[in-house]
Amino acid sequence: MDANIYKRNELLAQKVIKGLESRNMSGYYAANKEEALAKALELIPEGSTIGMGGCMSAIEIGLLDVIKGENYNFIDRATAADQRAAMLQAYDSDVFLASANAMTEDGIIVNIDGNSNRVSAIAQGPRKVVFIVGMNKICDDVDGAMKRARNVAAPINAQRFGLDTPCSKTGSCFNCKSPDTICCQFLITRFSRHAGRIHVILVNDNLGF
User: Fold this and answer.
1) DSSP character for 96?
2) What superfamily in CATH does domain 3-203 come from?
3) Which end is more exposed in the chain, N or C (fewer Cβ atoms within 10 Å of the end residue's Cβ)?
4) Rounded percentage of the chain residues whose pLDDT exceeds 70
5) How many CA atoms lie within 13 A of 11 on its CB side?
């Protein structure tokens, strides 16, 4: 990463963290993936039951490999015989891992979901939610964050899952009602009523989509 971009991200992260704190959420800055992994493990006590959505950022910093170990109770939806049961179990987890499709400079988190297990767990259920967010996800405002979620994150994820949606073919949102659409539920997290529940690790790197 260019040194000027890196410095700009470092400064911007402090603004985002202040915004999160004003919204009763906790923010942390990680200079790289290694620092992000260390901070995440500080926030996740050994022995925790952990749920996760489709969080590529957690995979990219190496967190998934660690929590699959014997020191944690990871609810692995991908290998579960009953995926619905695994998703329901995640609602009662100690920690839920997620990323953001986009975030604003003043700390608002935007996510779009198809099955909606991810956004519903972010909103309510798990005792703690830990977000891993690359600085590539930061946008000026909610309008910009929604545009990023719909025109960057959604098309890439639709392609990743092999879905038959207009955005997977064109790379931009058609506001479709396709049976395969992953834009079923939109969650804007602007405040946490429960102090100490939502934690956001901002990573000075490009993570996820």
Assistant:
1) E
2) NagB/RpiA/CoA transferase-like (3.40.50.10420)
3) N
4) 100
5) 5
